[in-house]
Specification:
- This protein has 140 residues and is an all-alpha fold.
- 83% of the residues lie in helices and 0% in strands.
- It has one domain.
- The model has no long low-confidence stretch (mean pLDDT 86).
Length: 140
């Protein structure tokens, strides 16, 4: 991607000037990063939710399926599994299995990317987790 941006910069430099080309390429990098960030987050949400449903389809109970999600995400590190489970337990308690899975997916997100800095961003992430959950849960 960096090579493409550099080539584009040098091509645009003649027509837009150095500042125009730099601004355009900078905006392109920011846009690409935002798109890439969203795609990787959504992909991680899908992988975790699918791991849960796959475990349930194999006959595992709810709690065992949640543990299977953690094992699929952190196959080697018991410490990361324990930390993520601890973060999940700090979320509001619920008896709804779907909400518990969403809480675990959010805890995985927080463990890997840090706690979102604002309530607005937290709500956006929770909304995206819910959207992905609803689309996958409907198939199972």
């Amino acid at each position: 991607m960096i090579l493409v941006i550099l080539i584009l910069f040098f091509m645009l430099q003649g027509t837009m000037g150095i500042m125009g080309a730099a601004l355009f390429c900078g905006l392109l990098v920011v846009s690409w990063s935002m798109l890439n960030f969203r795609a990787t987050s959504t992909g991680a949400f899908k992988a975790s939710i699918r791991a849960y449903h796959t475990a349930r389809a194999k006959g595992l109970g709810h709690n065992e399926a949640l543990m299977a999600v953690l094992r699929s995400r952190y196959p080697i590190s018991e410490r990361k599994r324990a930390k993520t489970w601890y973060l999940c337990q700090k979320r509001p308690a619920t008896s709804d299995e779907g909400q518990m899975l969403k809480n675990l997916v959010f805890a995985i997100y927080c463990n890997e990317r840090g706690t979102p800095p604002s309530l607005e961003l937290t709500n956006k992430i929770l909304y995206e987790i819910g959207r992905v959950y609803d689309s996958i849960h409907a198939k199972y």
